[in-house]
Design goal:
This protein is an alpha/beta fold and about 190 residues long. The protein contains eight helices and five strands. The protein has a single domain, classed as 3-Layer(aba) Sandwich (Rossmann fold), CATH 3.40.50.300. The protein has a five-stranded parallel β-sheet with strand order 2-3-1-4-5, sandwiched between helices. The longest helix is centred in the last third of the chain and has 17 residues. The radius of gyration is 17 Å and the shape is globular. The relative contact order is 0.20.
């Protein structure tokens, strides 16, 4: 079964779970744009992730991007501020990884982004790194706004298909799983006009 052009997939999970990596690979496989909620949520500052874009502005920008012809793959969390876009989703993919794997990935990613010396104690980005890692580590406890309980409640309220990926697997394997699931979802849906 082939996947019909125009598939619209949203991929979310905790920071470090691989949402961006999977979304980029899936978008390439489907031949559609990859969009990331961080590009809409955050203002383009240097260093990154310093200033939040006003809600109305990020909704307008994301709405314009999602309204373009053809499909897309959207990664990241938009729970709350982007709920207006839920009716557009054909499929939502939730990635869950054990915290120890996720946190190790984040530590490696941040060292690659800023340099190991910069995030080490006394380094130029240590404070930001420590705060980010504490925030990411609190995903399981629910003590931060973006947490597992909130994601689970949001997923339960969806009317579209939801696929949960809970295994550590190569990206190509996860892409194949998502593509197979999209094909099933699309087969049950009448063509868009």
């Amino acid at each position: 079964m082939t996947v019909r052009a125009g598939s619209r997939v949203h991929i979310l999970g905790a920071s470090g779970s691989g949402t961006t990596t999977l979304a980029a690979a899936l978008a390439a496989r489907l031949g559609v744009p990859h969009l990331d909620t961080d590009d809409f949520f955050w203002l383009p500052t240097e260093p990154k992730f310093e200033a939040i874009r006003p809600r109305e502005e990020r909704q307008a920008l994301l709405g314009d991007a999602l309204a373009r012809p053809g499909g897309w793959v959207l990664s990241g969390s938009l729970c709350g501020w982007g709920d207006v876009f839920i009716p557009l989703f054909d499929l939502v993919v939730f990635i869950y990884l054990p915290p120890e794997i996720r946190m190790a990935r984040l530590a490696e990613r941040e060292a690659g982004r800023y340099g190991a010396a910069a995030i080490a104690p006394g380094g130029a980005h240590h404070g930001k790194y420590a705060a980010f890692m504490a925030w990411a580590g609190a995903y399981e406890t629910g003590s931060v706004e973006r947490n597992r309980t909130m994601h689970e409640q949001w997923l339960q309220a969806l009317r579209c298909a939801v696929l949960r990926l809970t295994t550590v697997a190569p990206v190509t394997e996860h892409v194949a799983q998502v593509v197979a699931h999209i094909a099933q979802v699309i087969a049950r849906r009448p063509p868009r006009t």
